[in-house]
Design a protein that fits this description.
This protein is α+β, with helices and mostly antiparallel strands. The strands form 3 sheets. The chain has a 6-stranded antiparallel beta sheet with strand order 2-1-10-9-8-7, sandwiched between helices. The protein has helices at about 1-15, 30-45, 80-90, 100-105, 125, 140-145, 150-155, 170-185, 185-200, 225-235, 250-255, 270-275, 340-350, and strands at about 50-55, 60-65, 75, 220, 240, 245, 300-305, 310-315, 315-320, 325-335. The protein has 13 helices and 10 strands. The chain has 2 domains: about 30-70 and about 295-353, no CATH class; about 75-295, Beta-lactamase. It is about 40% helix and about 10% strand.
Length: about 350
Amino acid sequence: MKRIAFFFAALFVLSCTDPAGPLPRGRASAALDEAFASYLQAVSDSTEDLHSVMVLQHGKILEEKFFVPDTAHILNSVSKTFTSTAVGFAISEGLLSLDDKIVDLFPESVPENASDTLKRVTVRHLLTMNSGHGTDPTGATRRGDGDWIRGFMEWPLEYEPGTCYCYNSLATYVLSAAVQKVTGQKVVDYLDTRLWQPLGIGKPKWLESPAGINTGGWGLYLKTEDLARMGLCLLGGGKFAGKQVIPAGWVAEMSAKQVTCVNAGMNERQLQEIQSNPEHPAYAAYQPENNDWIQGYGYQMWRCRHGAFRADGANGQYIIVIPDKDAVVVTTAHIRNMQQELNLIWDHILPAL
């Protein structure tokens, strides 16, 4: 019996220390089993097109459900968190800094008669979606056939960099290009020995621009358990399988509120005016207890209610990290109402953790 117990104990330790091994499974409490069943019923009742969900606590998978085959899934803007991670590595290696100016990184793409405002845009501004743009240039630039970096720089800057939040996927593309510029490697290759291998993730597919640069803000494909591995790493302050993978300071910065995230042109004072006026048509939507999109934005990550933070991708892709519960919830989906998707997690799963 002692030999059998030792064998299973050794097997458990191996699974925890070998990043390529399967993530350990644990036994959920009766309360969590009941809550998870209630959550799945609520998903069905709401007609959400959920593709997969995984609930982890204390480093183990406790609940999981797949509605489609478990293959690499398009992540949309969850990709941004991985690009931010690459930026963090480049900064830790002395190849980039938060204060580097994009005009210095890409002098070949700077428009003629570039404004002084453009010359003040830094890596930090790109990470926090505070480049000074009032509208997102991504769609228009991607439809063109030119230099995407130049397209980013040519798009009108309506605000002083650092003063206005405007969600901007092309800014993340410029970050991807910056990593490639200073390392000589595409982000997907640069992350191979730094992130993919230490997390036990096979080198994934990541779409590229016509210039051969990973798109950065979108286009990464990973499996559900791969997302769980990243979630556990973030939950552990950058540690995975006993090894420091991502610098702890970078995880703390990227997951903290760096800026207020509200509509372009809306400052903190205007947000407070809406939140304090019950007659305002946007009053309910902008109450902090109702909205996971106004909790603050870090470095390509969002703060959530309940002290959580998340990587977030269009149509319902999530890595939700809940430090207070030592938990991670991962979803893939094709869901338009992403606030409802979060609400069901908060209403059903969170109380049972």
